[in-house]
Amino acid sequence: MKTNNPRREFIKSVAKGLAGTAIGSSLLPLLANAQSTNGYKALVCINLQGGNDAFNCFVPMSKSAYNSYAAIRQELAVPHEHLLTLNSKGQQAYGVNNLLGETQSLFNRGKLAIVSNVGNLHEPINKQAFFEKTALPPAHLFSHHDQTLYAHTLNQGELSSGWAGRVAELMAHNNINQHLAMNISLSGDNYLQRGVDTLPYTVRSSGVNMIEQLSETDPASFSASRAKLYRQFLSSERVHLLHRYYSQLQMDAWGTAQYVADILDSQILPALPLFATTHTSSFVQSLAMIVRLISARDAFEVKRQVFYVNLGGFDTHRDQLAQHAPLMMQLDQGLGLFYQALEALGLENNVTAFTMSEFGRTLTRNGDGTDHGWGSHHMVLGGAVDGQQIYGQLPTLEIDSDDDLGRGRIIPTTSFEQYSATLCRWFGIANQDLHQLLPNLRNFNLSDLGFLN
Predict the structure, then answer these.
(1) Is residue 239 one of the residues assigned to a domain?
(2) Which residue has the higher pLDDT, 371 or 269?
(3) What is the C-alpha radius of gyration for the chain, rounded to an integer number of angstroms?
(4) Is residue 131 domain-resident?
(5) What is the pTM of this model?
(6) Which of 85, 215, 382, 384 is the most buried (most CB within 10 A)?
(7) Could you read off the pLDDT of 426-437 as tens digits, one per residue?
(8) Domain count of the fold of the chain
(9) Residues 6 or more apart whose Cβ sits within 8 Å of residue 239
(10) Which of 203, 202, 204, 226 is nearest to 213 (CA)?
(11) CATH at residue 132
């Protein structure tokens, strides 16, 4: 005797409704284009919330440059004997903190690149132009909220959308499945992934956030009967426009959650270290969920995805040595396990991960910590990365130098627009669309930093 599964029937009904919408609307030519798209690509944004102190991650190793760095940083300086050498191609000698062993290995293998002195810039600016006010800096420098908003939106200060949200809306035609958002967050709502008309889809590191009280796993359970009643309630006729909109929103969210959960549940996890249940870091667990979602790309019928994961705690005003060390270790472990999994699954060339942070830290210390800075170094990881190189202009690590705005706040020489534009080109954004996507990009001569093949 055939058993009726209300959960699966509900998902099928949602899918039929979506298909009808697509066929009967302007989505049809978009789906045709999506089917002809060649290959899958994903961007993974790792947001280092609070302002990462990159000057204690990447350190000059030559005697004179290191001595200058150590004299400024004093107790915060990484001992020279603790630095791990970066075998960069014919560039200034740099090393990484010895807590970043996986990062060193990935760099020396050519899978990771460092982009130096990146920051929020409306236009190129130097010390003289800043103080003479002949160039325009971003508003409210050194403010966590404002600089996060600026880095994530890159749209001249308007809050309406983030640059990854605009990318998704511009490239929506690449995905056959128009119901599942191209942007997926493992860390809740964020400015980066908000579109003009769309929002990111959010999952937890453990998977889809289902409502246990409406579980239909056991059709004979009380929660299943309650789910049936709730679905009938949402499906009932309503006159008021807002009532209809809310009901449809609930139905769509419920259907999507069940759809994503079913696909994830059907996956067979390979025996990879990233998927070990012993990991206690929520950051590593989030990266594992990202790999699971990427692995299910064919089932989801998607060819472009943008993922976002937040690693917080980098606002190290005090007790920095104790606070920063475990954060570096989490980041380093996550990057190593993540890339190892991608290689094992043959996806390393399809996925590019990159770090972001609202600003860097001061080169000077404030006692036992650092304060809000400006420019910082960032990492890009993936098989498509032209690694083992440091891109951009390395700053002079000296107080009162031309690179120092004051108090060790280093003026960035590479903008987040240039950084993002390079990522967007690899992702498939056409050159003619870049200036529409990133309005401030036209203020910079170089729009491709060259770190992606």
Answers:
(1) no
(2) 371
(3) 24
(4) yes
(5) 0.89
(6) 382
(7) 999 999 999 999
(8) 1
(9) none
(10) 226
(11) 3.40.720
